[in-house]
Amino acid sequence: MQLKMLNLGANKIMSQGAYSVADLLLNSNIQELTISGNQIGTVGINAILHAVSIKNRSLKFLDLQHNNLSEQIDLEQMIMSNPTLKYLYLSEVY
């Protein structure tokens, strides 16, 4: 059986943990990822977005709400290069 949905919300994940999540996205066919309510930060969020933009073509739902962003994130490349992503939640990411 293959993992299709993963909820890592409110687990105190920081940027280092986000790199592990990015690796997971590069090497899986996961369709739904919730990683809201953590302290991932800008670097970690960009690592996840990069993984989604370069290889993952199965992700349909990505929830990044309530994370600690201090700078701008790069959404354009990810959105333009990933046709399967249908839902992206980014509220209160500051």
Describe what you observe in this structure.
- It is a single chain.
- By secondary structure, the chain is α/β, with parallel strands linked by helices.
- It has one domain: Ribonuclease Inhibitor (Leucine-rich repeat, LRR (right-handed beta-alpha superhelix), Alpha-Beta Horseshoe).
- The chain is 34% helix and 13% strand.
- The chain contains three helices and four strands.
- The chain has helices at 15-26, 41-54, 76-81, and strands at 5-7, 32-34, 61-63, 87-89.
- A four-stranded parallel beta sheet has the order 1-2-3-4, with no helix packed on it.
- Helix 3 (76-81) links the parallel strand 3 and strand 4.
- Helix 1 packs parallel to helix 2 (41-54).
- The radius of gyration is 12 Å and the shape is globular.
- The model has no long low-confidence stretch (mean pLDDT 92).
Write a concise keyword list for the protein shown above:
94 residues, alpha/beta, 4-stranded parallel β-sheet, 34% helix
Count of DSSP-assigned helices: 3
Could you state the order of secondary-structure elements as H and E?
EHEHEHE
In terms of quaternary structure, the protein is: single chain
In spatial order, strands of the major sheet run 1-2-3-4
Summarize the structure.
With 94 residues, the chain is of the alpha/beta class. The chain has helices at residues 15-26, 41-54, 76-81, and strands at 5-7, 32-34, 61-63, 87-89. Helix content is 34%, strand content 13%.
Question: What's the arrangement of secondary structure elements?
Answer:
Blueprint: E1 5-7, H1 15-26, E2 32-34, H2 41-54, E3 61-63, H3 76-81, E4 87-89
Parallel strand pairs: 1-2, 2-3, 3-4
Helix pairs in contact: 1-2
